[in-house]
């Protein structure tokens, strides 16, 4: 075993782990952040960064960070969302600029995650190419086995390794819980000459409840499909290829969604991002809540002296507060998810929008968009 005991080790440098490390550094700590890959690295995603992501990057790095993000050569501002039903009818929703910046953007995760990692304050100790192979808790200490490297000990471990989190398995075993609900999704890229300013979501059979997406990123589009159908095992790759025969780079995995409140902590550890199953049950977006949970966990940890971290269970200062903060948004997205399990829901929504635009504006306000 290595000699020094780390106060806090964050496992996984996706948006959740990076935000947690960034915020901890701002609060005066020097966290160790372990990442199995080296940047830039790809992550299967729709590459859509919502208004919440923009707002949280502003919280972490101020206007200067937003200027750098929107100046990224691959960043495409997003200004419009189009919901399309099986009859081809569309509900077009604008994201009006907010405080001088576009409300959302498209940026490949290959580029975005590397960009985030490059923003970290120098007091964050990021170790890439470092995979955590196993975790063992003895007394109040964590023993971490690393692939091909000497082991580590830690007082507090943050599970930020995404959907296949080992720390999450530990928290689940501690509470006697099963795995969270995940919805399968597959994405690929197509080269196309057509251009569009709208992010399109097509709610069509046979993937209902679910949708195909087409997100224009210049001449390269991110296209994909996700479904919350739980009985039939849909051949998502085949369905996507049938829709976009030239699609390349197909890859997919499950999105762990926030359908229920779950314990996110156990003594000496906590979960953030996909490890905590915080993706939106209606849209499948998870980057915003990954950043938010990382920030909130850092703030909860900073409320206690590091001497207490070894035995700390942050349920009250982290889990309950985070769910409270997310409650309005999650209530809305769970309601939309349940509505979407009815085949007619999106058609109904589009029909209602045509007749009562004010009502739909009110429903969609929680997503920060307006009907056009
Ligand atoms: C097909 C698809 C499309 C999606 N589209 C969108 C979208 O358009 N917008 C959106 O907001 N969300 C989208 N999501 C969800 C989004 O990708 C996730 O919610 C988000 O990436 C979660 O971030 P995270 O930091 O929790 O985990 P991740 O981004 O998964 O990062 C986890 C990190 O941990 C590292 N890691 C894993 N295991 C270990 C280990 N043992 N040791 C060390 N490091 C480890 C990984 O290499 C990775 O860097 C999509 C998901 C899928 C599957």
Q: How would you summarize what this structure contains?
A:
The chain is an alpha+beta fold. Helices cover 33% and strands 28% of the residues.
Order of helices and strands: EHEEHEEEEHEEEEHEEEEHEEEHHHHE
Give me the CATH architecture, please: 3-Layer(bba) Sandwich
CATH superfamily: FAD/NAD(P)-binding domain
Overall average residue pLDDT: 92
Distance between the termini: 61 Å
Please give the share of residues in helix.
25-40%
Strand content: 25-35%
Instruction: Provide the number of structural domains.
Output: 1
Low-confidence stretches: none
The CATH top-level class label: Alpha Beta
Number of helices: 9
| Class derived from helix and strand content | alpha+beta
What do we call the CATH topology? FAD/NAD(P)-binding domain
User: How would a textbook summarize the main sheet?
Assistant: 8 strands, mixed
Architecture blueprint of SSEs:
Elements: E1 5-11, H1 15-26, E2 32-34, E3 48-49, H2 51-70, E4 76-78, E5 80-85, E6 90-94, E7 104-106, H3 109-119, E8 125-127, E9 132-138, E10 141-146, E11 149-159, H4 166-175, E12 182-191, E13 198-203, E14 210-217, E15 220-227, H5 236-243, E16 248-256, E17 265-266, E18 269-271, H6 287-302, H7 315-340, H8 345-355, H9 357-364, E19 370-371
Helix pairs in contact: 1-3, 1-6, 2-6, 8-9
The protein binds flavin-adenine dinucleotide (FAD).
The site of flavin-adenine dinucleotide (FAD) has 40 residues, from helix 1, strand 12, strand 16 and helix 6.
